[in-house]
Amino acid sequence: MSIEVKGISKLYGNQKALNQISFKVEKPEIVGFLGPNGAGKSTMMKILTTYLNANEGSAKVNGYDVDTNKQQVQQSVGYLPEHNPLYLDMYIKEYLAFNAHIYNISKKRIDEVIELTGLTPESHKKIGQLSKGYRQRVGLANALLHDPDVLILDEPTTGLDPNQLVDIRNLIKTIGKTKTVFLSTHIMQEVEAICERVIIINKGEIVADKKLKDLRDEKEQVVIVEFDYRVEDAFLLKLPKVKSVTNTYDFVYEITFKTSEDMRSYVFDFAHDNQLKILQLNQKNANLESLFRELTSD
Ligand SMILES: Nc1ncnc2c1ncn2[C@@H]1O[C@H](COP(=O)(O)OP(=O)(O)OP(=O)(O)O)[C@@H](O)[C@H]1O
């Protein structure tokens, strides 16, 4: 197990930022830690990277306890903090060499991470001259320097343009094939694009911990179809994965399916096989975003 969290609570003064959090992350696995602003994501990540102590509970990273084996935890973890602290006056290589020196890392590895994070075309520049996206890449390169088994990334794609977003997401996906990636975000699409599993946190408590595949399968979907004449509800109930049928108006039907798979083609084939003409066919999809809203709204 790469990350193992048991009953972690964290108080800031008398405000409880985390309340009895427990979860596990395997290797390799990419897990999205999703929650609205102020949910406790950064706090959890700071505890996992030994920057903060919890008030209650225990956490292990790569088998090392974050309280009693801080150094081994830091050696196992690559951390990209939300507010990536960079020395703006340093050149990219100089900055990475500075950090590499602390960890006794070879020059060859610096070149490797520059290449891996797509920094090569900008590598002659000072960090202060880089765009937000490239600064983010420097943070990621820095997190990867010591080739850690576990990557903890706090909102890694915030502020990136759509092209950079795709690049960084692809990079994270590649890394996640062999390592553990635990990344926080409040963007549902981000989780859909990169992660295999999502842990949703709200007000310091975990409200969902699921494989994305299972989460999608749980969803219901409504297809609105209009035929050219009346069809018996019982007839439409023969469609696969159908949950219910409502005749909402004249020849208009709302068919609820127990799946998020797009069922319109089934409805289309069904109409064709039964010599029905379709006048309209629309999908009302209860997507992951609405689930997130459902779980995290007041
Ligand atoms: N140093 C601090 N002192 C006091 N309260 C804090 C401190 N850091 C965080 N908090 C509070 O703890 C709660 C959780 O904050 P945290 O930064 O962990 O949330 P988050 O999910 O990372 O939010 P965001 O998505 O906005 O970054 C918030 O209510 C926040 O105001």
From TrEMBL:
Entry similarity comment: Belongs to the ABC transporter superfamily.
Query: A GO molecular function for this record?
Result: ATP binding
Q: Would the keyword Transport be found if you checked this record's keyword annotation?
A: yes
Residue stretches making up the ABC transporter domain:
3-228
Query: Does the record's keyword annotation contain Transport?
Result: yes
Taxonomy of origin reads: Bacteria, Pseudomonadati, Bacteroidota, Flavobacteriia, Flavobacteriales
Q: What is this protein called?
A: ABC-2 type transport system ATP-binding protein
Q: Which Pfam families match?
A: ABC_tran (PF00005)
Q: Which PROSITE patterns match?
A: ABC_TRANSPORTER_2
The entry's keywords? ATP-binding, Nucleotide-binding, Transport
Coiled-coil spans in chain:
none
